[in-house]
Design a protein that fits this description.
By secondary structure, the protein is of the alpha/beta class. Helices cover 34% and strands 20% of the residues. The chain has seven helices and six strands; from the N terminus they run βααβαβαααβαββ. Strand 5 and strand 6 form a beta hairpin.
């Protein structure tokens, strides 16, 4: 039995452009414009899911996907940092930002740590190994980074070494109780 998992990073929001900690926000004009050219270019999948976040819902809609919300696909909870820029938080709490960036188990903002996101993503992915077929999910960069790290057998320390841009498609394959990374490409170039 083989599970093919296609993870689509949600389109750009104001937080993406501002290098800010995401809050539940809509797509920005650039994000919305990019979707029109991409609708209908994704593989047919038996299961289509999305994060409960507004940007994921708007991305799925823009891609003409009938996606069901899946709580495990939600973005990292940034606690009191949500909606604020990295520069602003770093200026007010440089030690907390340094701790968060260096320690994958730290959550000085009162939300989730990188390890928390990885644990959530791992549990969700392990449940998918029972699916024989294709699953497509619209989610967030940190969740996709966690999925890639899990597939590669890397720990949460790998988060800072994986970059996932808006509308990147990550393909993973699950077989025999383990995951492998098949591809990581911008959706616009994915044929």
């Amino acid at each position: 039995m083989t599970t093919r998992l296609h993870l689509i990073c949600a389109a750009a929001t104001a937080s993406t452009a501002a290098v800010a900690f995401a809050a539940d926000e809509p797509l920005d004009p650039r994000g919305r414009d990019s979707l029109a050219r991409l609708a209908g270019r994704l593989p047919s999948c038996e299961v289509v899911l999305r994060s409960p976040a507004r940007c994921a819902a708007e991305t799925a809609e823009g891609l003409a996907l009938d996606a069901k919300p899946e709580p495990a696909l939600r973005d990292c909870d940034f606690g009191r940092w949500a909606g604020r820029s990295l520069a602003e938080v770093q200026a007010q709490a440089p030690e907390a930002v340094a701790e968060w960036l260096q320690n994958p188990r730290a959550a000085p903002h009162g939300g989730e740590s990188f390890m928390d996101v990885m644990t959530r993503a791992r549990a969700w992915m392990e449940g998918l190994l029972a699916v024989d077929g294709a699953v497509l999910a619209v989610t967030h960069a940190l969740v996709i980074r966690a999925a890639i790290a899990h597939a590669l057998g890397a720990g949460p320390e790998a988060f800072g070494r994986i970059d996932v841009a808006p509308l990147t498609r990550t393909r993973l394959s699950g077989v025999g109780g383990r995951w492998t990374l098949a591809a990581l490409v911008p959706l616009k170039d994915d044929r």
